[in-house]
Amino acid sequence: MTSDDNKEKRKAEEELRLLYQVTTQDIAFFKQQQWTVTNYVLLLFGAMFGISQIPVLKATSSERFALCALTTVLGVAGIALLWKLERSITARRDRLE
Fold it and tell me: Which of 35, 61, 77, 93 stands the most exposed, by the fewest C-beta atoms within 10 Å?
């Protein structure tokens, strides 16, 4: 092996190591984002429930329906975000393999 071959091999190894580090950092970031999304969705669910339980606010049936619809949209959006983040994690794990 020549000196140029050794330099190219070291450069390729360093690029691979850097790609590995970036990928593992991406996975950690996406997992943290999943927990953040989950926490905020649960917080908003609690807020929706709290609003519906305030005795001073006598909610009509149409207001209760709107609150239920908003809660459903919130749940679907939360699940969609979690699914998108999970796909990103899967893509990064595939890259690592």
Answer: 61
70-74: which pairs have CB atoms within 8 A and are 24 or more residues apart?
71/45, 74/41, 74/44, 74/45, 74/48
DSSP 53: T
How many C-beta neighbours within 10 Å does residue 85 have?
19
Query: Which residue's entry shows tokens 């983040």?
Result: 85
Query: What CA dihedral angle connects 72, 76, 82 and 87, to 10 degrees?
Result: 170
pTM listed for this prediction? 0.78
3-state secondary structure of 90: helix
